[in-house]
Amino acid sequence: MPFAPDEIGWHHACGIGADGHWHGWFDVRVAPDALRRLGLHPDQRTAGVDGASPPGWWHAAAERRAR
Questions:
Q1: Is 21 helix (H, G, I), strand (E, B) or coil?
Q2: What is the pTM of this model?
Q3: What pLDDT is stored for residue 54 in this prediction?
Q4: CA–CA distance, 59 with 52 (Å, rounded to integer)
Q5: 34: helix, coil or strand?
Q6: Cα–Cα dist 11/29, whole Å
């Protein structure tokens, strides 16, 4: 693994969303110097959406396969 244990951390939160279903969120943080070793700059902007979301049937099929 390219990161030492003290260079990466993650947290998980979960709760009931507005639709009444449980949702989970992950927060992953990597130390800036660890990113520099991989040729990444910690001040780079985060990735943005570059296209339309997949159609609804795609999401439904993925949820069925996950069970």
A1: coil
A2: 0.49
A3: 79
A4: 13
A5: helix
A6: 9
How many other C-beta atoms can be found within 10 angstroms of the C-beta atom of residue 19?
7
Q: What residue has token string 């998980």?
A: 12
**Beta-carbon neighbour count of residue 56 at 10 Å?**
8
> Which residues, 6+ apart, have CB-to-CB distance to 18 below 8 Å?
none
- Each residue's pLDDT tens digit in the chain (67 positions)? 688 989 999 999 999 988 999 999 899 998 988 888 888 876 777 666 677 887 888 888 888 888 7
Both tokens of residue 6?
């003290």
Looking at residue 45, what DSSP letter applies? P
Taken in order 48, 50, 51, 54, the sign of the CA dihedral is negative
The residue whose two tokens read 């800036």 is 32
Q: What is the 8-class DSSP label of residue 1?
A: -
Is residue 24 within 8 A of residue 10, CB to CB? The reply is: no
